[in-house]
Design a protein that fits this description.
There is one protein chain. By secondary structure, the protein is of the alpha/beta class. It folds into five domains: 192 residues, Leucine-rich repeat, LRR (right-handed beta-alpha superhelix); 92 residues, Leucine-rich repeat, LRR (right-handed beta-alpha superhelix); 195 residues, Sandwich (Jelly Rolls), CATH 2.60.120; 92 residues, Phosphorylase Kinase, domain 1 (2-Layer Sandwich); 208 residues, Transferase(Phosphotransferase) domain 1 (Transferase(Phosphotransferase), domain 1, Orthogonal Bundle). Helices cover 21% and strands 21% of the residues. The chain has a 15-stranded mixed beta sheet. A hairpin with a 4-residue loop joins strand 41 and strand 42. Helix 10 runs antiparallel to helix 15 and helix 12 packs antiparallel against helix 14. It is globular. 43% of the residues are buried.
Length: 1029
Amino acid sequence: MSMNRHLFPSYFLLVSIILSGFASSQTLPKEEVDVLSAVAKVLKKTNWNFSVNPCDDTLTNGGWRNLNAGKGFEDFVTCNCSTVCHVTHIVLKAQNLEGSLPKEFAGLPFLQEIDLSRNYLNGSIPSEWGTLPLVKISLLGNRISGPIPKEIGNITTLTSFVVEYNQISGKLPPELGNLLNIDRLFVSSNYLTGDIPSTFSKLTKLTDFRISDNQFTGTIPDFIQNWTGLDRLTIQASGLVGLIPSTIGNLVRLTDLRITDLSGPESPFPPLQNLTSIKHLVLRNCNLTGGLPSYLGPRLTLKTLDLSFNKLSGPIPATYSALSDVKNIYFTSNMLTGEVPNWMIDNGANVDLTFNNFSNVPRTSECQKNAVNMFSSTTPLVANDHSNVSCLSSYACPKTFYGLHINCGGNELTINTTKYDADTKDRAEYYDSRNGWVSSNTGHFMDDARSPEGVNIWQNTSALKIADPRLYTQARLSAISLTYHALCLGEGNYTVNLHFAEIMFSDNNTYTNLGRRFFDIYVQGKRVAKDFDIVTEAKGAGRAVVKSFPVTIRNRKLEIRLLWAGKGTQAIPSRGTYGSLISAVSVDPDFTPPKEDSPGGGTSIGDGPGDGTSIGAVVGAVIASTVVLVLLIGAILWWRGCLRPKSQMEKDFKNLDFQISSFSLRQIKVATDNFDPANKIGEGGFGPVYKGEMSDGTIIAVKQLSAKSKQGNREFLNEIAMISALQHPHLVKLYGCCVEGDQLLLVYEYLENNSLARALFGPPETQIRLDWPTRQRICVGIARGLAYLHEESRLKIVHRDIKATNVLLDMELNAKISDFGLAKLDEEENTHMSTRVAGTYGYMAPEYAMRGHLTDKADVYSFGVVALEIVHGRSNTSARSKGETFYLLDWVHLLREQNKLIDVVDSRLGTDYNREEAMTMINIGILCTSQVPSDRPSMSTVVSMLEGSSTVDVEKLLEASFSRGNVKDEESVRAMKKHYAIISGEEMTSMTDQSINTYGPFTSSSTSTANASDLYPLKPDSAYWNSRV
């Protein structure tokens, strides 16, 4: 027994060695070897040796695994040989693969991981992968295009799906909501569109969700509150609009929250007091208003706090003294007031307070104090106007310069007798060149994995294709904002030349070629280039491009600013590669400059050279100038409304309990060229509508309330109140308003393709050929917008005037509902809400037109009419002689009785349409226009039916509705049939609407009944709003 006990371990060891050798000698089934061979051909993977066993992990040759590969360059194939060998992991990172994604992976039935990060692969994601038991997919940093196949949603074992930094398009498939085990979902830096699918509410195991740099629509969904395990959420320049949902405060495990460049209405700071573990908080350019929340002070876990480019006001809370150890604090470009606290100046690590409204006291008299950048900290950033920087008010110019030349990021350099100043300070802060110009750099590169990391100057790493590359061998970088400010230029006209060359990306067929860099360029406060792309402009990396901009210098100052707005890749070739990049600045006069000032002739800013004028003359000139200046200031203040009494309308506007961007009358006049008749694009319900362009290049539509308008002042204010609370991809966006004196204006987004009515049945020269998929998309869009108004928004709203003229089309022919001047709040307990009828006959529901009985079913009726117009391509009404009017709806009912509904389809489509979708839309139109309101479906049901996701049988609903009776006058039907027979072969000209415009209703035989009666209380208080919840 004793000997047996001693021998047992030896036997066990021997058996283990034998089994180990057996396992390593096990071979892969021929079927999987054949699959790997096919995969290698598709990937263009050339170093796999099929004469050796791919599953023998003791072999170091054969190309199946590289044990010496560094991090980020992993290269191996792994098998599981517990019984029979099967390939389970294929990881090929940064291997310069130039093929495409193999659908042949589907022939490896035990494959759990595909990692092809940072290669040069193209093609689309194969739908065949949906059959695999994959746990991880990573395709980061390739050339993948096309949509994400819905079949990926079948991989219920998937925990990580990473497809960042590609060229993927289309919408996120709702089927991805079936990935109940998904932990990481990264889709940043692609070309994805559409909303975030509601099915994503089921992804409750998510810990990391990143969707930056895309073209999504809609808002950040409230259902993110379901992702209670979320650790990181990144939504930068995603295309989403609206408010940051308050439900985000429920994600108590968040340590990293980054939301930037979120357009939409102004909103208060989101309630984040429960995020006690937050380390990185970035809420940049999100239209946040109000004060800094005091609860952020005790957040000792914070490492980055970036609240830049918002509209935050008030002082820095005293509780923030606990943030002295935070590595990076950016309050750049807000409206913060009060004094900069001592703790921040004395102990702050890296603080940026530039472009604010702090008190001008000795403490802020320096542009940089310790680690605090206070450049222009007492002067907010004003669009189309460069800052008057108080900390430079006593700057002594060494001389008057008639040019500016900077070698950005490089040493002093002379090229063709022109000397370029050095610009070598590597910290992101304020810098004084002592040569008539200063700079201010804001930001640090987050997640930085560059080598060297943390730098703001870069030496070129690619071959330069430039005849004289000396200006381009290095460049200045900025993670957020970079400003060059010249202070001593002589007056006159100049050309600003900005030199660029992309020196961080390569120009070869590797992943280092796949980076995308975008930033905005401002000169003298005006944006002169949006989403500037060096590689595109220069036609390749390592090539130079010079952008030139004319400028007139009147006060000796010039400001050049580069701003990163969250777009572009952030990890190609390595993490931390993003932001703006500039090689050189050269500003040259368009005139022959005078001789340079003599030595010692330096002046302070604003001073001129002496000319020996007498003291008496100087005193007289000063007095005269003072009188003129006082009169001029008074005139300006009066013109801007500072000295005149406020109108009742302005007082009412100030008292309204809602927040919205307010434009000055001066801004609107500049944008519309003082309401130039050439910019008039229509006559809306309020009065004339003008097209304009804001200083940042945004195209707007301005509704101007006229004195003759039937819609009154209070209704105007109530339209603002409602629209400001509504943000949806299928509602026309309200940018803001202007209330000054007797001027009442709404500022909307401008829609390029006018109205649906104009596109379908306007004059021939204005019509747009709308194919069937476009018509289907437009109809679904209108339905989604109405479903939001009726059921999803905080306010339950009935539009009351849905018609084809009130549906506008954007550049991509997406539908957006406009004209809320007739909208009515839907009090759920009172369906008899209307004291008057307001709408357009021909679109109004019978119970509303005849009895004033208004519910959301009135909008459903109107939608049904519009849906039939979309199918038929003609207006709902057409007039003939003797005042007779015939309606498309009646004709549709006649065709239904004859079982010829397919004849409703627009003959211009020929046979090029989806018959099933067309019949569904027709039947929905008929159902929505039922005489019985209760028979009409809700708009959310309509959306489901149009998209084919509803189980409701439209045909059965129709039969039930008609069984309740729908008797028609036979004589009327015969006359109608004859009339339609006459016009069926003719081209449609103007059926109901004679003058078509973008932002107002047609002048139409479909009569609008709007008047100026007050619909809502002037100042809706909290009790009023609560009664509508």
